[in-house]
Each structure stands twice: as structure tokens, then as C-alpha cells.
Amino acid sequence: MRSSCINWPKEDSLISIRQSQIDLCEGNKCAAALINFFERYHKIKIQEDGSKLCIQNYTEKQLKVGIVGLYGEKTIRLALRYLEERKIIKICRNPSSRLKSDQTHHFQFYPEIINNYLSLCYTVKKPDASGQSARSVIEDTLRQKEPETLSGIDTVKVPDRRGKSAGSI
Hints:
Helices cover 41% and strands 12% of the residues. By secondary structure, the protein is an alpha+beta fold. It has a three-stranded antiparallel beta sheet with strand order 1-3-2. The protein has a two-stranded antiparallel sheet with strand order 4-5. A hairpin with a 5-residue loop joins strand 4 and strand 5. Helix 2 (29-49) crosses helix 4 (73-85) and helix 5 runs antiparallel to helix 6 (134-144). It is globular, with a radius of gyration of 17 Å. The termini are far apart.
């Protein structure tokens, strides 16, 4: 079923960014675009594999192409760090022990964090009985919730553009 009156090429990249994604990312539109990208491929992998936990793997260049070149690699790196700090994604090394030299980033995407945010933010309009606003409840949830992870996967330290360690992402 076609959803457009224009016959776009099937292989054509598409990125859409919802206002709620921008709100979740506190205005970071690159992070919002990456959420959309990870969500789309998470859904495809779940349909193919049937597993709730799936690992996606991309280079920074592939991510740049995936969000149709809207942002450069440095901005993407910063947005990835932001998403990992918010526990929306986890960036891992290749889970295969024989491919330790692989520099491709492996991402575990946690849609339940976003669903928690959406259910709290868009259903709670006023402070709850404890006087907390929806935003503060969401922030508490994001800080406390440790999503289910795959065991044995290391966190990656990504260098900045000068080759120095820019911290864990």
C-alpha cells in the first residue's frame, strides 16, 4: 500500500522527527533523529528475529547516511553520548570475542525508556500527589532505571577528532 502520491524510490532514505522525540532529547534534534533511526531498524530486527533484545551495528558514517546527512560525525558522536547518558541506547563492542579489533559500534536500543517517558509526559498534565511534575518524575525514572542488557558486552571509548579519548559512549 502506497502512502504517497509520489513514486519515491524504494531505497530512498527517510527520516522523520517527532516533537515528542525533540522534547525527550531536550531540544537535541540530532539525538531525536537518531532515536527515529534506531527505532526503525529495531522494529525490523524484531520482526526478523523475534527477539526483544537486539544489537544494531553501524559506523559513524552509516549513521550520518541513516539520518540523511543532517548532521556531521562530531554532532552524531555528541548525540550518541547524550542518548547513552539518558539510557536510551547502550554502545557496546562487538559481542563476538574473535572480532575484538572491530571498530563498528554496536548499539542496544531501549524503547521501553521512551515508552515510559511518553506515558508519563503525555498522560500526567499536572503535579502528582507528591507535588512532582511529570518532567521530574521522568527524570527520576531515567536516572534510576537500569535497562536489561546483554551480558559480557563492553562499553566503548570513542576518540574525539584529534584522537584523544573523549570518554565513554
